[in-house]
Amino acid sequence: MPVFSSLLAAVFDVLYSILSLYFWVVIAAVVMSWINPDPYNPIVRAIRTLTEPVFYRIRRWLPFTYVSGIDFSPFLVVLAIKFVQVFLARLMMQIT
């Protein structure tokens, strides 16, 4: 059983790290939307490539997220990331 527990802990750590990294990518996308940087910059393109498909799906499924020119889809993504992180942390505490 210690091997299974260690494997589960490693998977949890990797998932938690990926979610944390994506959280910061979403925050960077929000800040970029305020300053309107050069669209040909490779970093800007990478961040938009990583975030726009998720934002687009949220806007399509929940049309009320785009109101009066303000896009709330990044806010919902951040909430979803935090929800999954808390859920995984509680689950990990119960399992170990």
Characterization of the model:
Helices cover 80% and strands 4% of the residues. The chain is mainly α and 96 residues long. It has one domain. The protein has a two-stranded antiparallel ribbon. A hairpin with a 2-residue loop joins strand 1 and strand 2. Helix 1 (2-35) crosses helix 2, helix 1 (2-35) runs antiparallel to helix 3 and helix 2 (42-61) crosses helix 3 (73-95). The longest helix is centred in the N-terminal third of the chain and has 34 residues, at 2-35. The protein is elongated, with a radius of gyration of 17 Å. The N and C termini lie close together (11 Å). The relative contact order is 0.14.
Segments where pLDDT lies below 50 for 5+ residues?
A: none
Number of helices: 3
Q: Find the count of extended strands (DSSP E, 2+ residues).
A: 2
Largest beta-sheet characterization: 2 strands, antiparallel
Provide the spatial order of strands within the biggest beta sheet. Answer: 1-2
Topology:
Elements: H1 2-35, H2 42-61, E1 66-67, E2 70-71, H3 73-95
Antiparallel strand pairs: 1-2
Helix pairs in contact: 1-2, 1-3, 2-3
Keywords summarizing the entry:
96 residues, single chain, elongated, 3 helices, two-stranded antiparallel sheet, mainly alpha
Provide a quick synopsis of the model.
With 96 residues, this protein is mainly alpha-helical.
